[in-house]
Amino acid sequence: MQELYDVLIIGAGPAGLSFARSLADLPLRVGVIERSSQATLADPPEDGREIALTHLSVNHMQEVGSWQRLPAEGVSPIEAAKVFDGSSSYSLDFDNTSANLDALGYLVPNHLIRKACYEELLAHPHIELMPETVVEDVTTDAHCGTVTLNNGEQLRARLVIAADTRFSETRRKMGLAAGMRDFSRSAIVCRMEHSTPHHQTAFECFHYGRTTAILPMNGNRSSVVVTVNSKDARQFIDMTQAEFNHNIERQMDGLLGEMQLTGKRHLYPLVAVHANRFISERFALIGDAAVGMHPVTAHGFNLGLRGQATLARLMANAIAEGEDFAGEAVLEAYEKEHQAATRVIYHGTNLVVGLFTNETLAAKLARKATLRLANNLPPLKKAITTALTEQEGKTLNPLHELKAHLPPLPPLPEVTPVKQVRSKLVQALPEKLHPLNVLGLR
Ligand SMILES: Cc1cc2nc3c(=O)[nH]c(=O)nc-3n(C[C@H](O)[C@H](O)[C@H](O)COP(=O)(O)OP(=O)(O)OC[C@H]3O[C@@H](n4cnc5c(N)ncnc54)[C@H](O)[C@@H]3O)c2cc1C
What we know:
Bound molecules: flavin-adenine dinucleotide
Oligomer: single chain
Number of domains: 1
Strand content: 25-35%
Shape: globular
CATH topology: FAD/NAD(P)-binding domain
CATH architecture: 3-Layer(bba) Sandwich
CATH superfamily: FAD/NAD(P)-binding domain
């Protein structure tokens, strides 16, 4: 007889693990299927990604307990950010004091997030984790979904969730179309030490032909992200360490003094994905499987956290009302809310990438104008800061208002250990923002 679950999550990446944790207080039998081994989940290898977390995400991780599992030295506050264009020393500046915040956001290595989410799940052993298991097929009907594993075994669930990367095979198998944008650019990410302190400042330098981002880690260390045309990416991996150090020092114009590569260089081809629909019968996409972002606005995992929390909240509400937690009403509500939360930021990010990687004169002038406008129009700057930091005191905690009304957890079956973006306007502008001044033409 096929095992019957309430929810089966495909993929124990940070999104899948976070969703499993969000469901842990609900009276549901939840299984998580993951290709990697238990040992890899317990101690994921460094992958070079340093994730900038917004305040909303940090609040959520604190509420569910995974934040407390991060080693203090692994969390680096970002107190200021400077955006440069071309070889100009003019920068668009953000800082925590004018935003009235301790930090604009927090940088945490991806592997530590994965580890913390996994450890948090271990504290909820009724969530069944199935490591070293690959999903080969998924079908659903009005009543349940059937997941076929690589060992031939079939599992059934009232709801199947795909959290299996931006190239989600499950999404394809379920016939959900997605808009994809291949930027034909790749990011080379690594850690570097430097002789001059960064003062917890992030630098985004849109040089012509390439972008260099410096994200401040604790001490005189930074995460360096170089984005270039994919045909040129390999040379950044193959350069000698000394050549690479010198290259980054020159790009930063000596701002951080002498720079020294520490550790490996990782290569990520940049492809952004937005599924046209996030749901099907008894099925939903979360994390990168729903929306895979270009990293420039640092929103991928932040949106993933938001989406899983939205779905979990809607499911919890349905359970509290005695309704079907995986029915059409819940899934359509998730679709509506998460599409609204992601579409603008997804297309806005792609527009920013387009503007800052376009080498025509018009684009170069437009980006200089954009930086000056954003710097000199306080409401616009505040709007950007609010969007990027998500500092408003909201909560993503799905069970925030509901906890007291939920039925108690049912007795648990015997489980294997946790297997887990003119004229009137111009007149209104201050003189320094007149287009001719902005473009340096008078
Ligand atoms: C260079 C870079 C920098 C980034 N910086 C930021 C940032 O600053 N801020 C931010 O918010 N985001 C950032 N991101 C995005 C962030 O890393 C992702 O959004 C996040 O890791 C996605 O998590 P996920 O769980 O959805 O998917 P993944 O981490 O891709 O995990 C998917 C899991 O599914 C498993 N899987 C896949 N197929 C199967 C199958 N058939 N059967 C079983 N298991 C399967 C995989 O093994 C994997 O464990 C960045 C990304 C990159 C590349």
